[in-house]
Amino acid sequence: MKLYRLFLFCLLFVIINNSLAQPTAILEKTIDETFENIYSQKIYGDSLSTSFLILIKKEVKLHKHLEHSEHVYVLEGEGNMQLGNDWFKIKSGDIIFIPKNTPHKVVTTSKNSLKIISIQSPYFDGSDRILLE
Hints:
This protein is an alpha+beta fold. It has a single domain (2-124), classed as Jelly Rolls. It has two helices and ten strands, in the order ααββββββββββ. A hairpin with a 4-residue loop joins β1 (38-45) and β2 (50-56). The radius of gyration is 14 Å and the shape is globular.
């Protein structure tokens, strides 16, 4: 498990330091918190993967992706996550793998928005997101 976390940390480091995508500016910029529930900003994408900075004030409703696997890295905040039939707490520093076609949901429990990096593979355009509630 430690080797897996190290691999994901290195992957995030590469994404964050990719000069073509300029993600450092995205991660450091002040975000207007007037959004209602979810703020999403694409960081980088090619045919193999897409990464996003996502802020969640309340929740992400139960859904699944037919063709995409997803890694979620929690930057800030806390929440409860449903993955398949299981529920667990998530917090800053956690890395969660979501296999394709697996129902998942997040409910923010912290005072401030849950701030995450989502890395989806292959390229993600939202067309395979199936809402389940």
